[in-house]
Amino acid sequence: RGATIPLIAFLLLLVWGFSGLTVVEVNQFGVEERLGRVVPKPLPPGLHVTLPWPFGRVLRYPVKTVSTMRVGFEDDESAQKKLGLRAMLWTQAHAKEYALVLGTQTEVVAVNAVVSYKIHEDSERFLDYVYRTQHPEARLETCAYRALLEETRSATLSEVLTEDRLAFATRLRDRLRRD
Q1: Where do runs of H (alpha helix) occur along the chain?
Q2: Does pTM surpass 0.85?
Q3: Rounded to 5 degrees, what angle do the CA atoms 177, 67, 167 make?
Q4: Hey, is 29 helix, strand or coil?
Q5: 3-state secondary structure of 71
Q6: Quick check: bond before 54 cis, omega within 30?
Q7: pLDDT digits 0-9 by tens, 69-113
Q8: SS3 assignment, position 142
């Protein structure tokens, strides 16, 4: 009976100590924080021993996964869930589209694009993504819309849709990469 309380205390201490074991999956990099300070070297995939909670934590980011972001339109997911359909009829509202006024100020076009991106695996750029940019996905979306606006403000409808679509897409991609 006298050993019950020390045994329970030992088991709780042991479980707390195990909170310092962290697994970073194969497609991830981890960032370790010790006492609120960032360890400047990313954690590669594998098992790592860190300080237990609340003195340390590891944040994981999917660096080997290519993510996509739709630019120019937004799906109404709540309507899709309600109806249980993946696609909607053309007679019903199916998306919120973003219209761009072209350089002539008389033509309007809806440009829909998909941006594919991946978090960089280089140590310095990875830490830029994690700590030097607040809300990186929102920033990428903002940069994509700005690049669309800048590329279409001096273009005509025929330039955007027919004549030079590949060059338009290349300029858009290059501008987004610079940003």
Answers
A1: 4-18, 77-83, 123-127, 136-152, 157-158, 165-178
A2: no
A3: 40
A4: strand
A5: strand
A6: yes
A7: 888 765 555 444 444 444 444 444 545 555 666 666 666 767 777
A8: helix
